[in-house]
Amino acid sequence: MDHLTVVDHPLVQHKLTIMRDESTSTGEFRRLLREISQLIAYEVTRELPMTTKRIKTPMVEMDAPTLDGRKLALVSILRAGNGLLDGMLELVPSARVGFVGLYRDEETLEPVQYYFKAPSELDERLVIAVDPMLATGNSSVAAIDLLKKQGAKNIRFLCLLAAPEGVARMKEAHPDVPIVTAALDERLNEKGYILPGLGDAGDRMFGTR
Ligand SMILES: O=P(O)(O)OC[C@H]1O[C@H](OP(=O)(O)OP(=O)(O)O)[C@H](O)[C@@H]1O
Ligand SMILES: O=c1cc[nH]c(=O)[nH]1
Ligand SMILES: [Mg+2]
Predict the structure, then answer these.
(1) Is residue 51 one of the residues assigned to a domain?
(2) pLDDT at 170 exceeding the cut of 90
(3) Residues marked as catalytic
């Protein structure tokens, strides 16, 4: 997989435009994030290993394709990652789920960790870390550091918006982790927010601030 994949599907781009619009309500924002997550999930899971199993249709027996290997692990970077997680779990209900609790210190833009819980046997699973925003990349780099420390070897990062600064930081720290996003935006502002962006994803999802 390429280091950066931008999912330019018309439905993704249409929904993203509504999410960016400041007049979109919290409920609508959350619903759209869930919908988009399923469309991006399609891309990030495209190369899952397959095998076949013998089944009987009402007509004949056949060797039918089925997913191979360990159940995949979805890891949500709290809080905003949960918006992507919910949609992906509807698509892959058997996935194991982990959580990395991080928030960005507003002054230093450094991540502050408050929680970590990962599924077992991470080294044998495809691990998909999800967070809508890749801004400086400090949070995603820290989350992936933790996942690697826990044994994860095959990791992908799924987001909604990426800034060039965050993509470069991820490429430097974790060149083995492909990024799948709905859009690559222009840049960060002086406070580390993505431009044009959509504002604070967590606040828009949960109606805080
Ligand atoms: O790439 P970075 O510069 O690290 O910024 C991105 C992080 O910022 C946001 O989280 P935030 O800290 O606002 O926490 P929240 O999800 O709890 O609102 C976002 O969901 C990412 O985790
Ligand atoms: O633009 C940004 C940057 C970081 N976190 C957000 O929620 N939005
Ligand atoms: Mg936030």
Answers:
(1) no
(2) yes
(3) 104, 108, 200, 203
Please choose from 37, 85, 133 the residue to mutate so as to test ligand 1's pocket, defined by most ligand atoms within 8 A of CB. Answer: 133
What's the whole-model pTM score?
A: 0.96
DSSP states along the chain: --SEEE---HHHHHHHHHHHSTTS-HHHHHHHHHHHHHHHHHHHTTT--EEEEEEE-SS-EEEEEEE-SSPPEEEEEETTHHHHHHHHHHHSTT-EEEEEEEEE-TTT--EEEEEEE--S-GGGSEEEEE-SEESSSHHHHHHHHHHHHTT--EEEEE-SEE-HHHHHHHHHH-TTS-EEESEE-SEE-TTS-EES--S-HHHHHHT--
CATH (domain of 193): 3.40.50.2020
Q: Is 206 in the pocket of ligand 2 (CB under 6 A)?
A: no
Q: ipTM greater than 0.95, yes or no?
A: yes
The total number of structural domains that make up the chain: 1
